[in-house]
Amino acid sequence: MYNVCQGPNVHLGPFDENSEMSQLNEDSILPYILGALSDSKKASFEATIKTDTELARKVDAARRTLAPLDTWSAPLPPTTLVDNILIQATTTTPLEYVAASTSMSPTDSQSAGKPSRFRLGELIAIAACIALMVSLYFPGVQTIKRNNLKNVCEMHLSGFGEGMSAYTVVNDGNLPYVGPSQNQNWLRDPNRRHLLPAIRHRFVLPKHLIHADADGTIDEEATMKNIEAFLRRTDLPFWAVPNANGPVPKINIRINIPLAADANPLFQEGKFRRGANGTLTPNSHTHDGEGQNILFNDGSTRFIKTPILDKNDDNIWTANNIEEYQGTEAQQSATDAFLTP
Length: 341
Known about the structure:
Layout: H1 17-27, H2 29-33, H3 39-51, H4 53-71, H5 81-91, H6 94-99, H7 106-112, H8 120-169, H9 196-200, H10 220-225, H11 227-231, E1 241-242, E2 258-261, E3 292-296, E4 301-304, E5 339-340
Antiparallel strand pairs: 1-5, 2-3, 3-4
Helix pairs in contact: 3-4
């Protein structure tokens, strides 16, 4: 199937309330320690700590990290601090600042005719402030980058969905289909053969089939001359698509049938793999395991945090929840989501 992210009519399965609450509580750790929470939020947070041992551990770790700042008392700066800093900036190199051991004194500077130095304690205070600001700023920047990648990924996936929709318009509502794979093991050889008709007739462009990270890594015109070789590449982050051994549904068979998604975490580079504890890996690795963008057959796209789509526990990565594969398996029905490499 192919990947789409968001649509108001798509049934997403159970909402992961615990995951959302956990993230909210972790974001509240620093305001709690600094006393920035309101009384009601503080009481709610402390109640959560009593029942959530993992959150309590993180609070203790944060307190230990910030403890050195509580034991250090910053001296009052001299009244001419700004003037002295400007003098040092024009006469002293950065290495001399670090090596300085004499105190900054307006009297000494004027009487001796030499620029004064920073105290070691002042340098430590500045370093501590910079470290604290970086610790607060960096996670926010990373979050912005992750969200931006999700949005770009969804945009590329939507372009793929538009091409597939256009294909069905001129093919009586049928998605592209070239029949089952012949003597092909999809664990060893990527299984994207159904996409051939849509690409050959340029309803879908090669750039629409890969994740946003791969922009600029393919030559569109050269690719069109040998589409089959392109679809069998393993060095690009392709969308997970319908298994070519099974039936392909019509575009309107059911709203929540996925047509594509971020890479299947169980079959990376054509190889079956499990998580560290031996269980099936739930979410795609494309977005740090947070979830996956999915394209549905109604043209909608959405980022969801679980591969389980409906009340029938249909996992988009597996064929009827099979856990061990030989590379010849297929969907059990036209509505069984089974997205493979």
